[in-house]
């Protein structure tokens, strides 16, 4: 059986984040990728120049078309932009009984553009997060979702506990935005165990789409039947290789190298 994964996210015309990063990642991990597009963005390595959200009907029809013919073994959500799109996605996840749901609570692009309306944060918390197998906030997103400041390791553990109360089955709070200069360390928590996933911090500005790529790699591994922690370990290795072997494309924050994991590194850390 060919594993199939679905991404429900925004399109990045520059190819480094969003739907484009997700499909490249699925492909590199030998998973057949499908997509439902929630918004078009005019975007490049310098930033986001325009956001054009899809109608609810457009999102609904894409999800129905996929579900009626192609059964994804795992799905991920990225940029969902507004409350009504989140509601549509949550309804469809329930209707079609989709499992292995990875929620990347995308809020703000690196350049500062808003990819989620403020009023949609509550809908994300109440409608979508309770349906998720794992959520993958970065530190600023975890701060918004919990209402607490995250500075120390103890803070991050407390935030992970608070996020689990929202109803997700597990959480990984990514460490890309942490001030640690030597390592980029992510924290996994499933209600029982805290696991720190360590990687050398690469000094580069070419980190556009790191979060999308990381959550897509988790989704691909879940589609193949891996457990959540193993999926996250492989994703960490995938993103580490993708940042380390940079491409230097564009004049701003360049994309990561989606070929690198296959080319340079196959194992988990
Ligand atoms: N400079 C870096 N060097 C190595 N790993 C990084 C670097 N920046 C981010 N990462 C890793 O990339 C993944 C995405 O993290 P992060 O940048 O926090 O997410 P987002 O793109 O959602 O803001 C995490 O596994 C994080 O540890
Ligand atoms: C269409 C779209 N979706 C998501 C993002 C954010 O991607 P992320 O992986 O968090 O990377 P940065 O944008 O922060 O570099 C996006 N930019 N566009």
From TrEMBL:
Pfam families: Phos_pyr_kin (PF08543). InterPro entries: HMP/HMP-P_kinase_dom, PM/HMP-P_kinase-1, Ribokinase-like. Its EC number is 2.7.1.49, 2.7.4.7. Pathway: Cofactor biosynthesis; thiamine diphosphate biosynthesis; 4-amino-2-methyl-5-diphosphomethylpyrimidine from 5-amino-1-(5-phospho-D-ribosyl)imidazole: step 2/3; Cofactor biosynthesis; thiamine diphosphate biosynthesis; 4-amino-2-methyl-5-diphosphomethylpyrimidine from 5-amino-1-(5-phospho-D-ribosyl)imidazole: step 3/3. It catalyses: 4-amino-2-methyl-5-(phosphooxymethyl)pyrimidine + ATP = 4-amino-2-methyl-5-(diphosphooxymethyl)pyrimidine + ADP; 4-amino-5-hydroxymethyl-2-methylpyrimidine + ATP = 4-amino-2-methyl-5-(phosphooxymethyl)pyrimidine + ADP + H(+). Residues 12-257 form the Pyridoxamine kinase/Phosphomethylpyrimidine kinase domain. It comes from the Bacteria. One of its GO terms (biological process) is thiamine biosynthetic process. GO terms for cellular component: cytosol. GO terms for molecular function: ATP binding; hydroxymethylpyrimidine kinase activity; phosphomethylpyrimidine kinase activity. Signal peptide: none annotated. Keywords: ATP-binding, Kinase, Nucleotide-binding, Thiamine biosynthesis, Transferase. It is an enzyme of class 2 (transferase). Belongs to the ThiD family. NCBIfam families: HMP-P_kinase. This is Hydroxymethylpyrimidine/phosphomethylpyrimidine kinase. It comes from Melghiribacillus thermohalophilus.
């Amino acid at each position: 059986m060919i594993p199939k994964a679905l991404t429900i996210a925004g399109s990045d015309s520059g190819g480094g984040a969003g739907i484009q990063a997700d499909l490249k990642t699925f492909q590199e991990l030998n998973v057949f990728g499908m997509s439902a597009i929630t918004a078009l963005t005019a975007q490049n390595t310098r930033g986001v120049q325009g956001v054009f959200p899809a109608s609810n009907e457009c999102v609904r029809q894409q999800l129905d078309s996929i579900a009626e013919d192609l059964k994804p073994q795992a799905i991920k959500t990225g940029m969902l932009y507004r409350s009504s799109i989140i509601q549509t996605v949550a309804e469809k996840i329930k209707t079609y009984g989709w499992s292995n749901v990875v929620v990347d609570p995308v809020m703000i692009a690196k350049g500062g553009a808003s990819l989620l309306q403020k009023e949609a944060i509550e809908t994300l918390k109440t409608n979508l997060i309770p349906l998720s197998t794992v959520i993958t906030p970065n530190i600023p997103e975890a701060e918004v979702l919990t209402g607490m400041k995250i500075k120390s390791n103890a803070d991050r553990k407390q935030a992970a506990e608070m996020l689990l109360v929202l109803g997700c089955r597990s959480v990984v709070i990514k460490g890309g935005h942490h001030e640690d200069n030597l390592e980029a360390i992510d924290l996994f928590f499933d209600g029982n165990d805290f696991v720190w996933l360590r990687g050398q911090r690469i000094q580069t500005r070419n980190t556009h789409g790191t979060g999308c790529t990381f959550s897509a790699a988790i989704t691909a591994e879940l589609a193949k039947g891996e457990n959540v922690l193993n999926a996250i370990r492989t994703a960490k290795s995938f993103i580490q290789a993708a940042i380390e072997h940079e491409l230097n494309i564009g004049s701003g924050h360049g994309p990561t190298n989606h070929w690198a994991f296959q080319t340079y590194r196959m194992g988990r850390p």
